[in-house]
Write a structure and sequence with these properties.
The chain is built from eight helices and no strands. The protein is mainly α. It has a domain of 111 residues.
Length: 170
């Protein structure tokens, strides 16, 4: 019995030199969980505000090639596809394009996407012709997310903090 337990412990130990497994970043905005969406009637305002921001920003040449606008374009193309197999293939291809690379490259991609959206948000809210009734600049989730000086750590995948010497090692 002890031999079986020892075998399980040895087989489940990390392999030296193997790439560490990292959690996949989750889609959406920080703090907006499915429970929060159900409980918060303002979640429709958030979706509407994001849609307004991207419609305005992605129509501009300066933002049209940004990561968020490319994702909006991908979502529009995906919604037009009716064949489930083709849709699955397109999603898998997009996931490979957007999730491959080192952990540092993924963090850099998230930083770039966040800064592009922050620039878009700032430009939208500094306009003199903001549409009446627009909730982009008054939505607290957008405001809290895009007025930070740096990308909030809970926006996408946070960079892994280095361990202090002598802790967690052998």
């Amino acid at each position: 019995m002890w031999a079986a337990a020892a075998l399980v412990a040895v087989l489940s130990a990390p392999v030296p030199g193997a790439a560490p497994k990292h959690a996949k970043p989750k889609a959406g905005l920080p703090g907006v969980t499915p429970q929060a969406k159900v409980q918060d009637p303002k979640s429709a305002d958030l979706a509407s505000a994001r849609r307004d921001l991207y419609q305005w920003g992605c129509a501009k040449d300066v933002y049209s090639v940004s990561i968020p606008c490319q994702n909006v374009k991908f979502a529009k193309e995906l919604s037009k596809i009716k064949d489930p197999a083709q849709k699955t293939l397109m999603i898998q291809k997009h996931q490979i394009e957007t999730t491959t690379g080192s952990p540092e490259a993924k963090v850099a991609r998230l930083d770039k996407a966040w800064s592009s959206t922050k620039e878009m948000y700032t430009a939208f809210c500094s306009r003199s012709d903001v549409p009446a009734g627009s909730k982009v600049c008054t939505n607290m989730t957008l405001k809290n997310t895009y007025t930070h000086p740096t990308r909030p750590s809970n926006w996408g995948a946070a960079p892994k903090k280095p361990q202090a010497k002598g802790k967690g090692g052998l």
